[in-house]
Specification:
With 105 residues, this protein is an alpha+beta fold. The chain has 1 helix and 8 strands.
Length: 105
Amino acid sequence: MDGREEKGKRRKKKEMERSHERRVHLSFDVPEAREVYVAGDFNSWDTQSLPMKKTKEGVWKAKLKLPSGRYEYKLFADGSWVEDIPNTERVSNPFGTQNCVIRVE
């Protein structure tokens, strides 16, 4: 198999993975926040890579594309982890706090 065939197979595999991704919408209603990020096991808990956008009404929103599965995440607002996010499933983490859980079908 030559290099072109190998690249073609890798490209096709990535396209198939993307086709199984689902859009996930997150929102956080804290108008006084200056900046909010989403961090979770889907982005190696990077507190700077997924910024949320603030609407005119002051609600922070983010859209993610994730493959099916169960993911843990938290919000990082103004330099601190957010502990109280209403209407979310939560689980304990090794740091004595809780992570939110999102399930993608």
